[in-house]
Amino acid sequence: MPFVRVEVCVLGLSESGLQVLLGQREAAPFAGQWALPGGVLRIDLDEDLDAAARRVMDERLSLTLPFLRQLVTVGSRTRDLDRAPWALSVVYRALVWVDQVQPLAGKRMRGLAWRPVEQAQSDATLAFDHRDLIALAVQQTRDEVDALTLPSGFVPSAFTLGELQALCERILGRALDKSSFRRKLHDRALVRPIEGAMKGGANRPAQVFELQR
Amino acid sequence: MPFVRVEVCVLGLSESGLQVLLGQREAAPFAGQWALPGGVLRIDLDEDLDAAARRVMDERLSLTLPFLRQLVTVGSRTRDLDRAPWALSVVYRALVWVDQVQPLAGKRMRGLAWRPVEQAQSDATLAFDHRDLIALAVQQTRDEVDALTLPSGFVPSAFTLGELQALCERILGRALDKSSFRRKLHDRALVRPIEGAMKGGANRPAQVFELQR
DNA sequence: TCAAAAGTGTTAGGCATACACCCATGT
DNA sequence: ACATGGGTGTATGCCTAACACTTTTGA
Questions:
Q1: With bands split at pLDDT 50, 70 and 90, how would you rate the model's confidence at B105?
Q2: Contact B211, B191 (CB under 8 A)
Q3: CA-nearest residue of chain B to A4?
Q4: Cα distance from B157 to chain A (closest Cα, Å)?
Q5: Which one of B5, B48, B133 would you mutate to disrupt binding with A, by most A Cβ within 10 Å of its Cβ?
Q6: Could you tell me which residue ranges the Nudix hydrolase domain spans (chains A, B) (predicted)?
């Protein structure tokens, strides 16, 4: 049987756009190079694949990731020759707020750091095929936002439409039209106003919404 | 390490629409029930995951499948308790012409048979979660046709536009508008006429096309 | 002359973009 | 007053579905 690992592409949302969490490898293969965090599937600990991904990220980030989605599985004889004659990796994507995660080094990782996705997608020095995996994760995430199939559990329970739009724009890396955005939400009945709840700053107060169940 | 298998959801195109290839299981678990064909990953034989899927189908169908695409990976502690304490399956989808494959029983399968996808998708007696996997395969395949990202290598090297449209319609299970279909092909420059090549039946001859490289 | 399939044009509607404009509040 | 973000309306263009119509062959 092959050597089975789980890798997680953690995308982080920040003011400046999408970032990806990378760690610097300590051991071969690709020692010293940057890679997605991951870990070995433990059949004694993990109930299923999703649970394995959650456990691996728990250990690395001491934070239970709210939104995991399987991306792809890669495997071949030559993937990880230093450790096994045949290696298989199930790759997940997670989505978090950058300021809710403090990158701290774990075992077998010299350090964890956020990197802008544009930079990571054009960095040929990443370990394994992780550059391609990051590109895949970013693409899929942006497709989801385009289709407005929002990762429930990731968006806050209450928000103004302006906040929701800003969230989508930061993921997409481009501006959206306010009118079209709101019409789409309304037509598809994706959000519902919370009666009486308003949120005001130094300007006109905004209606607070929640996701339609 | 877990027990690793590869399952293949072979979709077959026939006059009457999409079909899926199912086999009747001989051994536990789910002995006697119908399931997707598959096999164990052999790290001594398979170079990578795609090669494993091709080998497994070679053994079952004595036919090298032209178009394989990974769908998803499922795994848990309880998936295949009769054979292993932890089982993982990488699921692929293939696309073939029904009349090019003669279903013949292989080892550990009492028989192989084509079943219409509509029927399979509502059959609660299929083994494992294979009903869901079939639904996923059908959905993804139809999405590809909708987007006109045709599986090159599956469509014949030369065809008339009528033939191509009929192919898409059989996959989708619904009729398409001739004019819209052709305009889309033309606008996106997906096909190219083969000079001088015409195909005639008992009616007006049609221009023969090939896929734009 | 007719049936059948190829191939073309025309119209109407839905959806997205762009942009203009009013509204309510704190400073 | 005015800057700021909330909220709404309108015009335009693109894509698509629907359908009508002509063309070319064999029977």
A1: low
A2: yes
A3: B1
A4: 30
A5: B48
A6: 2-138
d(CA A24, CA B114): 50
What is the distance between the alpha carbons of residues A21 and B120, in angstroms, rounded to a whole number? 41
Which of B35, B65, B62 shows the shortest CA–CA distance to B51? Answer: B65
Q: Are A80 and A3 in contact (CB under 8 A)?
A: yes
State how far Cα A163 lies from the chain centre. Answer: 19
Strand C within 7 A of A178 CB: yes
Option in B2, B47, B90 nearest A73 (CB): B90
The CA–CA distances, whole Å, from A99 to A13, A16, A60, A96, B101 equal: 8, 12, 16, 9, 55
Q: Which residues touch strand D (CB under 7 A)?
A: A 160-163, 178-179, 182, 201-207; B 176-180, 183-184, 187, 200-205
Query: Do the Cβ atoms of A79 and A128 come closer than 8 Å?
Result: yes
HSE-up (13 A, CA, CB side) for residue B97: 8
Residue pair B211/B152 in contact (Cβ under 8 Å)? The answer is: yes
Closest residue of A to B42, CA-based? A1
- What tens digit of pLDDT does each residue of A122-146 get? 999 999 999 999 999 999 999 999 9
Please determine, for residue B172, whether its predicted confidence score (pLDDT) is greater than 90. Answer: yes
CA of B102 to C1' of C6 (A): 34
Phi and psi angles of residue A196, each rounded to the nearest 5 degrees, phi first: 80, -20
List, in order of start, the domains of chain A with CATH numbers: 3-146 (3.90.79.10), 159-211 (1.10.10.10)
Residue B149: Cβ within 10 Å count: 10
